[in-house]
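ingest -> fold -> write
write: protein_1
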Amino acid sequence: MQPSIVDVEKGQPEQHELTRQQQVASARLRPASALEPFATESSGDQPGSRSVSGDRFRLVLLYVLQFTSVGASIAAVVLIWYYMGWEFGLPALLITLAAVFIASGWWRWWYIAFVTAPRDIKALTRYIKLLGLVRKHAKNNATIGDVFAEFVSKQPEKACLIFEGRTWTFREVNDYSNRLANVFHSHGYKHGDVVGLLQENRPEFVATWLGLSKLGVIVPLINHNLRKNALMHSVTVANCNALIYGEALADAVAEIADTLPSAVALYQVNEIAQASVLANAKDLTTLMQTASKELPVNGVKKPSHHDKLIYIYTSGTTGLPKAAVITHSRYIFIAAAISLVAGFRADDTFYTPLPLYHTAGGMMSIGQALLFGATVVTRKKFSASQFFADCQKYNCTIAQYIGEMCRYILATPPSPVDKAHKVRLIFGNGLRPQIWPQFVERFNIPRVAEFYGATEGNANIVNIDNTVGAIGFVSRIIPVVYPISIIRADPATGYSEPLRGKDGLCQLCKPNEPGLFIGKIIPNNPSRAFLGYVDKGATEKKIVRDIFRKGDAAFLSGDLLVADERGSLFFKDRTGDTYRWKGENVSTSEVEAEVSNACGYRDTVVYGVEVPNLEGRAGMAAILDPERQVDLEQLARTLKDTLPSYARPQFVRLLSKVDMTGTFKLKKLDLQVEGFDPSGIEDSVYYLTPKGQYELLTPEIYEQIKRGEVRL
C-alpha cells in the first residue's frame, strides 16, 4: 500500500489523521491533497493561507535572530580566548563553529550530498560517456544504417533478432533491408518521401524501416491495432506517399482503401511470393525476390545524422494519435542513453514482447541490436504466462516491461520457471510501487531500471540505484548537469498549467511537493532538443515559456512528479487525472493500484464523475470482471482499510471488456463520459451506501442521488 493515501480515521467522518509512522512513510510520496501548497503561497485570500508580507516579516525576524546568535557566539569566543588563552579559546571556537553549522541546517545538505554522492557520480560518469558517444556519431554524420553496417561487418553471423524460434543474423537483416531499399529506389522513392509501415511484430518490420532509412525515406510506424478513422488519420496526418502492410492486416487496409488519397501507393507483404494482394496494391514479397542485396548507391542522396528517420505515434489514452518526429540523432541518443545509464552490455540478450511501433520496444530494445550489436528476442504478442518461460528458453539476461505487464505476470500461477532464468535486470516504465517488492522477490530480479520519458520529450530519467518506486532522480548536488525540474502547478487548470509568481515566472517545488515535470529545451542538442510532432499546433501546446527567466523554454511532460529529499523522483499522476472530492484531491493512479490489488490484480481504471448538486467529482472504479467473480463485500472492506473515505470509489462498474492502448495503458475517456447512469450503461453499476457497502445502482436510486435524497 502506498503510504501517500493511507490514514487512520478518528472521530467524525472526513476527519483524517496520519500516525507518526505513516507521516514518516509519506515523506517520499505525499497524498494528492499535498497539491494544496501550490495554491496557498500565492493566494492570500484563501482560508488558511499565509500572506506574502507575513512570510517576509517572519523571514527577516529569523535572519535577525540568527545574526544576533552568531554575533553573541563570536563575542563569547573572543572573550574566552583573550582571558583564558588559546588552550580554551580554540576548543570554544570549534564548538561554536559546529553549533553554527548544525543550527544553520547546512549539515543536512552535507549529509544528503554524502549519501547520494555514489549514485550521482555513477550517473555523471555514464552521462559523460553517453555525451562522448553521441558527439562521436554527430561528428561522423552517422545514421542508423551506418552504425548497423559496422556490426554487420564485424559479426555477420551473430544472432541479431530472434522471433518465435527463428533466428535472423546481422547479415540476413542487412540483406533484407538492402533488397527492400533497392525496390523502392527503382520505384522512384527518394530522400524526404514518407512511406507508412503497418505490420505486426516480426523481424521484417525492423528490416523494412531500416532499409527505407538508407534512402532517406521517413517511415511512420503505425499501430497495427488501429482501424478505420484512427488508421486513416495515422496515414494522412503523416502525409504518406505509400503504405507497406502485412497480409494479416489486409482487411484493415481494405476498409480505408477507397478513402485514402489517390497518391498513396499500397505495397503488400505476404508470407510467400506470388500470393494474392488487394486491388491496386503491389506484391512487395515477389518484387524483393529479384532485388539486389547490395546497398543502392547510384542516384541516392545519403541521409545525414539530423535527418528525420521515423515517426512514432504517441499512444495517449485520449484522442487520436499524434506523430512524433524521431531523427537519426534522436534514435541514437535514446537507445544509447538507456544502454549506458542503465548498464547494458553488448553480450546481453534482450527480451521484449512490446509493440515495435513504439519507442520502448522499437527504439530502446531494437536499438541495442542496431547500435550495440546485441541480440534481441521478440514475439508477436505479449503473453504473461510465457514471459519468463521465453527468457529461460532464449537465455535472456535483460527483459523489458511496460504499463500493466508486470501486474499481469504477477497474477499468473506460480511456476518452476519463475526463477529458472538468467535475467539480471528488467527495465521499463509502469511497475507500480505497490507490487514492486512482490515482483522482484517472486521472480528473483536483482535490478530494476524503471525509467520515465516521452517519445517526443526531453525530460527522460532512469532509476539506477534500485530505489523501490522511483522512476529516476535529479542530483541534489549538481542539478545543473541535467536541467530537469518540478514546478508548481495551477489547481484551477487541473494542475496542467504552471503556477506563476508576480514576476510571471514559474516556481520550483520543494522536496516532497508534487508538481509538473519539465525539461529545458536546448535546440540542436540531442539530449535537450524537443522535435515535437508533425502537427506544429500540437507541438506548441507541449512547450512552456518564460520558466525561470524571460525567453527560456521547456518541454511540458503533462505529468505530476514528486522528489524526495535525496532527489529520487516518483510518479504522482497524469495532469487531469487528479480529481477533487470532499475537499480533497484524489490521485487516480494510487486508487487504481489499491482497487486492482483488492480484486486479484484485475484491470482497473479510476476516474471522477460529476454528481448533480455536489462539488467536485465522485470517484468511480471500472473493473474488468466478465465472469462476475469480484466479491464486492470484500472489496468494500479492503478499501476501507487501505483508503481514506474521500478516496474510496463511490461507484463501481463491472466491465465485460476493456479497451487498452498499444502500450498496455487502460483507456478511460469513454468510461468517464458515460458516467454512472445505469440506464445508459450495459454493465452492472454499484454505489457505496452510507453503511459502507456496494449495492446495485438502479435507475430509481440514480434519480434519488441526483435529487440529493441518497447521500454519498
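write: protein_2
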Amino acid sequence: MLILECPLKCIFIETRSCRTKSRWRTKISCSTAVEKHYHDGLFIDKRGRLRSFNRKKMSRKRCGSLRGRGWKYGSGFVDGIFPVLSPIANQILNFVQNEANSNRIWDALDTLPHTHSTWDDLINVAVQLRLNKKWDSIILICEWILYRSSFRPDVMCYNLLIEAYGQKTLHKKAESTYLDLLEARCIPTEDTYALLLKAYCSSGVLQKAEATFGEMRKYGLSPSATVYNAYIDGLMKSGHSQKAEEIYKRMKRDGCEPSTETYTLLINLYGKASQCYVSLKLFNEMKSQKCKPNICTYTAMVNAFAREGLCEKAEEIFEQLQEAGFEPDVYAYNGLLEAYSRAGFPYGAAEVFSLMQHMGCEPDRASFNIMVDAYGRAGLHEDAQAVFEEMKRLGIMPTMKSHMLLLSAYSRAGNVGKCEDIVNQMHKSGLKPDTFVLNSMLNLYGRLGQLEKMEEVLTAMEKGPYATDISTYNILINTYGRAGFFERMEGLFQSLHTKNLIPDVVTWTSRLGAYSRKKLYTRCLEIFEEMIDAGCYPDGGTAKVLLSACSSEDQIEQVTTVIRTIHKDMKNVLLPV
C-alpha cells in the first residue's frame, strides 16, 4: 500500500464581492498565491495538484434553501472552505463507499491509530460523505466513533449523526443521539436543535418538533433565525405549508429578525402555491428591511413568476439578479426557461437555452426536460423528440420525468402509437412507469374515445403494483361524463370512499360538467349543494360549469348570487382573527 505525504494542509478561497469584478485568490499554505477568475473554483487534489471545479454544481442545490455556504448546520465550515482529504482519508472514503459489509467497515476502522490525525480524517470523510448525500455511510462512521472507538465525540460528530438519521426519517434514533449528547456532557448548539427539528418534521412528528423549542429554553437558548429557518424548511419539505406560515408569523411575534434565508424560503413557499404576488410582496419587504437578497432569493422569485407563465416579470427579476452583481447559474437560467415554456413561447425558451450555453453555463438534465416540455406544450412534438435525443447523445440519462414529458408531448398530439412506444421504452430502460405516466395514458385513451383500452389500463393499475389516486378517477369520471355514460360515472363516484379517496374540486366539477352539457340545471344545483356540504369549495372552473347549465336569465342570476355568497363566506373564513 503506497502512502503519499502531502505538505498542503488546507485551502481557503476568499468569497467574491457581489458588486465588484473581484478575482478568486487561492492561498496555499506552502506556496505563493495563485489567481483565477472569479467564475473558477480551485482545490488541491490528493496528489497535491491545483485543479478547478464547477462552482455552480458544488455550491447550489434545489428547493430554495441557502446554497454555497459549505455545511449549513453544525459543520464549522464557512463559505469557500471545503475539507481537504489526506491520502489516508481518501483511502477511508473509497473503502467506505465501495464496501457493502458494515462489519468489515467497522473491523477496518478498528485498525486505525487513535490519534488526532485519525480523528481529523474521520470527520473530514464524514463531511465529504455529507456533500455526496451518503447518509448510510455517515451513520456507519459516526456510530463506530460513538459506540465502538475510544474517541470522545464532539458536538460536530453528534450533529452529523442527527442529520443523517433525520435524512433517513429515523427521528427516534436522532432523538436518542441527542440524549447521548447530553449524557456525554456535550453542550448542544443551535445547530443541534435545528437538525433535530428537521428530523422531526421529515418524520411528521410535529408535536415533538414543537417540544424542541421548550428544550432549547431549558438550556437558556432562545430560538434564532437558524432554528426557525430549519423548522420552516422542514415543514415545507414535509408538506405542512400552512404550519410553516404560522411559524414564520410566530418568529416575527417573538422578535426574531427574519434572515435572507427566511425570506427565500417563504418566497418559495408562496411561489409553489401559485401566489407569486405574495412572493413579490415579501421580496420587496426584505429589501425595505435592509435584508440583502442573495442569488437564491432572486432565483426563487424567477421561479415564482415562471410557475404562472409570467415571463416578462421573470425576466425583470433575472435582470435585477445581474444588476445586483450575481452571475446567473443553471438554476436561474432554468427558472427563466420555465417561464417561457409555461407562457407558451418555446422559441423564447430556445433563445434562453442558447444564451446560457453562450455564457458558459452548461445546461443540466432539468434544462433539457424544460425544453422538451416547452415544445410539447406548443404541440411541437418533433422538436421535443429532437431535444430528448440530443440529451441522450450528450450522455445525460433521461429520467422518468424526461420520458413523461415526451409522453405528454405526443399525448397532446393524439399519437397513441408513439405514446405506447415511449412506455415500452421506459420498461426496456429499467424505468417503472409511475401513476402519473399511466394517468396520462388513461387520459389519452379517454380523449380519443378508446374506452376499452382506458379500462384495460385501469384494471392493470388496480390489480397490479401501480397505485391509483384521485386524479386517476377524475379522468375516468370526466371521460364517462363526456361520453354520456352517467351510470358508470355515478357508480365510480360512489365507489371512491371504498378506495379511501376523497373527491376534490376537479372530481365534483367533472361530475357537474356531465349534467351541465345536457342543461340539467336542477340536477347541477343538487350536486353543487352536495359539494358544499362535503366541505369542498368551488373554483373558477366550477362557476363556469354551473353558468353553462343555465338556460334563462333567472337561472344565471340565481347561480351568480349563490357563487358570490359562497365567495364572501370563504373570505370571512380566511380572514385572520
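write: annotation protein_2
The longest helix spans residues 553-574.
Confidence is low (pLDDT under 50) at residues 1-46, 53-80, 571-577.
pipeline exit 0
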